[in-house]
Amino acid sequence: MRDGKSDLEEKTGGAVIARTLATLGVRNVFALHGGHLDAFLVACPDEGIRLIDFRHEASAGHAADAYARSSEAGFGVCVVTAGPGFTNAVTPITSAYVDAIPTVFIVGSPPLREVETNPLQGGIDQVAMVAPVTKWAHRVTNTERLPDLIEKAVRIATSGRPGPVLLDVPIDVMFMPVGDPMFPVDRRLVAPDRPAPSRGAVDRMLELLRGAERPVIIAGGGAVFSRCSGALRGFVERTGIPVAANTMARGILPEHHPQYVGGVAAIGGAVARGKAPDLVMMAGARAGMYLSGRSGAIVPDGATVIQIDLDGGEIGRLRPVDQAVIADCAETFEALTDACADSAWSDRSEWLQTLQSGRYPFEPLFADAPKETKPGILHPYHAVKAAMDALEENTVVVIDGGESSGWASVTARSAGPGLCMQNGYLGCLGISQGFAIGSAIANPDRSVAIFSGDGAVGFNIQEFDTMVRHQLPILTIVLNNACWGISRTGQDIVFGENRRSIVSLASTSYDQVAIAFGGAGETVTEYERIAPAVREALASRRPTCINLIVDPDVINPAIPALVGDPSVPDQIMIPYYENIPLR
Questions:
Q1: For residues 120 and 206, which has the higher predicted lDDT (pLDDT)?
Q2: Is 578 inside any structural domain?
Q3: Percent of the chain at pLDDT above 90?
Q4: With contact defined as beta carbons under 8 Å apart, do 508 and 527 qualify?
Q5: 527 or 575, which is more confident?
Q6: What residues form DSSP beta bridges with 31?
Q7: Are residues 313 and 209 in the same domain?
Q8: Where residue 116 sits, what CATH number does that domain have?
Q9: Could you report the per-residue pLDDT of 38-90, keeping only the tens digit for each?
Q10: How confident is the model at residue 351 (pLDDT cuts 50, 70, 90)?
Q11: Rounded Cα distance, 256 and 488, in Å
């Protein structure tokens, strides 16, 4: 009590937001300063909330995304100011929406009493702008509702199919003294119940799995957020069924687990060799670009399909399924294991070996290629592999870019679920700095390594400053080929090499940019120097940039497949999508 007022009565709306977030278990908030937020920002230290401040709101939003993926917290929180602060955050909001990542965005806005007066950073309906790309967006209009609306936001973000939510808090609500809340929040959220499959669905899945000769499980982001690694592991160790992961679920099983075959490229390789799976179980994995769309290259047209997903709207996308299971992945695999405890399963070691043999598809293509294609120019595959092999086993890996992500993706290893991430369905470049910072905050005992193209790294290169100020041991490895590689190759295939347009970049000394912000850096042009440079950077525990000079004329084999074959007659080539037949 002070001057007859209770502690609650003296608190501003911003302080109530901080108190409520802390009550809900939030310990880290990703933010960038704005005057609309001051009442919240100054209250955070009193509530034990760490503020990680950035140089651009997009990076702060991406950091909240990565924090949700790689921490035990279950969701990430990003707080940014009104107007341009908000619009800068629309990209990470959208990215979290299409990737189904539980994130809470709190944004400032002009005073309610000044609506329609052309105020500073006003004149736009922030809630309406993000309504199509959030699970829920709402403007708070009085301080008494702040606690329960924040709790509601977190609950919506984390329940069912996860995703981003947004609360718009006008500055007068943020700064206003708060009386008694209408619905106080005084404890953490009760974890939502997880829907389990019916007994009939379990029996049918087991029937289909037992009858298959070449079954495979594809894990996706839904498997990661259900925390199903243990349940999945128990089931596949019992049954011997192989597991592949899409890019969202790398590390769902340990890298050297006998049933784990790595990425879905292993399935694609088997299909290409005439050894297609006859049953595919999609566990929290969505049909679409990461499973080769309608091509049948990953999920063959003739295969039996079981699909497990919390979102019934995802079931049967692109093709009918043979068994739909609208349930949590962990609950499903636990039920499957319990139901087959006394059953015998066929030996699938030959099928498993077929998939394992295609786990690293680029290795046979480039095994005999020179490590340095020209003096001072590195082969991109060998450069990335050497850097990846030099990482500590528990390193978090973040992959960013177009062609560069293709090189890094096929060599990447994951230290666990949510600990290897890359550009998602939005195809958003420049995510790596935010992802890396969010991952470093979530995993303070791990090193974090970025593998980025020189184009992608430039979007948010100022975040070297954030890494330095917060003393984060993040290693940024830039594949510098002085061009937008995937775009250049795409133009060459479709239009010919003499028609390149705005796909060239300067061979910038990105390591010097990191040094200028207070970090460390080195340009590497010799293959034998790559591994030592990586190990030295990790040992230093300093933000470091290694600038690898790689050959732009070595084409990633995945790109022509993405763009299409120009020799096929009667088609319109649509790079990165399905080509359109003319007849």
A1: 206
A2: no
A3: 80
A4: no
A5: 527
A6: 53, 79
A7: yes
A8: 3.40.50.970
A9: 999 999 999 999 999 999 999 999 999 999 999 988 999 999 999 999 999 99
A10: very high
A11: 36
SS3 readout for 256-279: CCCCEEEECHHHHHHHHCCCCCCE
**What whole-number distance in Å separates Cα of residue 309 and Cα of residue 220?**
10
Domain range for 31 is 7-175
Instruction: Report yes or no: 269 and 244 within 8 Å, Cβ to Cβ.
Output: no
Tokens of 399: 């992959």
Domain boundary among 338, 356, 374: 356
Task: Please give the C-alpha separations between residue 89 and each of 48, 103, 129, 169, 466, in angstroms, as whole numbers.
Answer: 25, 12, 12, 15, 17
CATH of the domain at 226: 3.40.50.1220
Task: Give, as one character, the DSSP assignment of residue 483.
Answer: B
Q: Catalytic amino acids?
A: 36, 57, 121, 427
Nearest to 374, CA basis, from 552, 514, 179: 552
Six-digit token string for 95: 């990215």
Q: Which residues contact 128 (CB under 8 A, 6 or more apart)?
A: none
Structure tokens at 422: 């890359």
Residues 423-447 as b/e (b if ≥16 CB within 10 A, e otherwise) read: bbbbebbbbbbbbbbbbbbbbeebb
Task: Give pLDDT tens digits for 367-391.
Answer: 999 999 999 999 999 999 999 999 9
Q: Are 331 and 463 within one domain?
A: no
| Same domain, residue pair 153 and 213 | no
Q: Which phi and psi (to 5°) does residue 278 adopt?
A: -100, -10
User: Does one domain contain both 383 and 275?
Assistant: no
Residue 230 tokens read as 């243990």
SS3 251: coil
| Residues 347, 375 within the same domain | no
> Is the CB of residue 149 less than 8 Å from the CB of residue 138?
yes
**Quick one: which of 216, 121, 167, 122 has its CA closest to 16?**
167
Strands 377-378 and 372-374, bridge-based pairing: antiparallel
